[in-house]
UniProtKB/TrEMBL annotation:
Residues 164-225 form the ANTAR domain. Signal peptide: none annotated. It holds the Pfam family ANTAR. Keywords: Kinase, Transcription, Transcription regulation, Transferase. One of its GO terms (molecular function) is kinase activity. This is GAF domain-containing protein. It comes from Williamsia marianensis. It comes from the Bacteria.
């Protein structure tokens, strides 16, 4: 491996360390940061995007460096075919050297050529969770933009990105759990005061309401708190 490529690998490793040490507040910010760095450090990449496919095969693009990436995902959502969709759902990586001569996904090929200037695509499986799968995608207006070195870098970048994304998601879930605990505590206190019951009885009342209404306990608590103190009133 040449010195130039070795330096790029070192830069990506350093970026991964930096992102782990200073995790963004949200997954969207994490995606924005990693895509900016992907375009900067992976040879041939002009644009980058994240494709997420939910359990019901609904496709979303939570982050992209250019509108072309969103257009490509929109086409794939409509047609249920394409390299990014395949990378996410088939847990593999897919490469298009030249969209003009690509024989796979013919309907996708025709619409992508008609709606964008993209000629090369590199799609890497990014993560898999119980509810969603995802892919990191690189794009170029030039044919044969991603050589083996660029693909190797893409694999490494996707692996680091998946680790960072998982850490950010855990942080989001933790903050959500804290918020749910706080709102449940508020609702429980209100019930205790209003009905002269103890903490266990108040929680049982909340749980019964949740089961009867078939909605989450935190949502029941939120409705109780907001019914007593509407959001606009709390801001006054």
């Amino acid at each position: 491996m040449g010195t130039e490529h070795s330096d790029v690998y070192k830069q990506i490793a350093a970026l991964a360390r930096q992102m782990n040490e200073r995790l963004p507040d949200t997954s969207v910010r994490a995606f924005d940061e990693l895509l900016t760095n992907a375009v900067k450090h992976i040879p041939g990449a002009q644009y980058a995007g994240i494709t997420i496919v939910a359990r019901r095969e609904e496709i979303a693009t939570p982050a992209a460096t250019h509108e072309h990436a969103r257009t490509i995902d929109s086409i794939q959502e409509k047609l249920r075919q394409g390299p990014c969709f395949a990378a996410a759902t088939e847990h593999d990586s897919y490469f298009i050297s030249d969209l003009q001569t690509e024989t796979r996904w013919p309907d996708f090929r025709a619409e992508a050529l008609a709606q964008t200037k993209i000629r090369s695509i590199a799609s890497f499986e990014l993560f898999t969770t119980r509810d969603t799968v995802g892919a990191l995608n690189l794009y170029s207006d030039n044919a044969n933009a991603f050589d083996q070195d660029a693909r190797d870098l893409g694999y490494i970048f996707a692996a680091h990105a998946a680790i960072v994304w998982a850490a950010v998601r855990r942080g989001e879930q933790f903050r959500s759990a804290l918020a749910s605990r706080d709102i449940i505590g508020q609702a429980k206190g209100m019930i205790m005061e209003r009905f002269s019951v103890n903490a266990i009885e108040a929680f049982d009342m909340l749980r019964t309401l949740s089961q009867n209404e078939n909605i989450r306990l935190a949502e029941v608590a939120r409705q109780i708190v907001e019914a007593d103190h509407p959001p606009n009133e709390r801001l006054q």
